[in-house]
Write the C-alpha cells for this entry.
Amino acid sequence: MKWGTVLFSLLLLLCFFGPHFFGHDINQFNLRERLQGPSHAYILGTDENGSDLFTLLCYGGRTSFKISMFVVTLASLIGIALGIAAAIFPNIFDETLTGFIDIMQAFPGFLLALTIMAFLGSSTINLIFALTITSWIPMARLVRAETKSLKQKDFVEAARALGAKPSRILRLHLLPHLFTTIVIQISFSFAAIILSEAGLSFLGLGPSNANGMATSWGAVLNSGRRHLTRAPHICIFSGAAIFLAVLSLNLIANDLNSKRSGP
C-alpha cells in the first residue's frame, strides 16, 4: 500500500495546493501563448486558449476527485445496505435483488451511464446520478456474498445461540469483518469511477466552469485531441493524470487484498 498511498497523496496535494505555488489564474487567457509546450513560465505548457495546463489539470483533478468521492460514497452506502439486507432476508428480497442485478449487468456500465446522461443532459448532478446508478452493483454482490459466508461462521452461530439480537450481531460481528472487504472494493470502485467520469467528460458530458472551460481530466483530454499533432503535451499530461490516479488506487486495493489474504 506504500507506493499507491504516496502516489495518491501526491496527486491530491498537487490538485488542491499546486495552483497556489506553481500555477496561474484558471480564467486567465493569453492567445499569443496558446498551445505552447512546457517552459519555465508554464511548466506543463498551455492549452488552446493560452491557459496554464498545469493549473487546468489541478482544477480538473479536484473536479474528478470530488465527483468520484460523491459517487463512491453513495454507491457504497447503497450497495452495503442492499447486500446486507439480501443476506439477512434470503428469500424474496434476495431473489429479487439478484435478478435485478443480473438484468443491470446485462448492460455495460459505461454504456448505461452514457444513455442516462443522454436523456438527462450534461450537468454535475446528472453525472453523479448516472455513475451512482451503475456503480453500486459490485459492492452489493460482494457484501451479500461475504455476509452469507460470515453468517455460517461459528462465532456468529454462538452469538445467535446466546440470544443476541440481529442488530447486535450485525454491529459487533458482521460489520467489523466486512470492513476490510468494503475498503478494498471502495478502492477499486474509486478507480473505476474516475475512469468512467473521465470517459463521459471526454465525450462532452462532464462539468465546465462559468466560462465554459473544461474542468475535468477527460474534458482536457478531449480538447487536446483537436491539436494532437501540434500540441501533443495536452493529451499526454491529461492522460498521464488519469493513468496515475487509477494506478495509485489499484495499487492501494491490491496491497490491501494481499495483506488480507496473508503470505
Residues 51-261 form a domain with the MetI-like fold fold (CATH 1.10.3720.10). The radius of gyration is 22 Å. The first helix runs from residue 2 to 22.
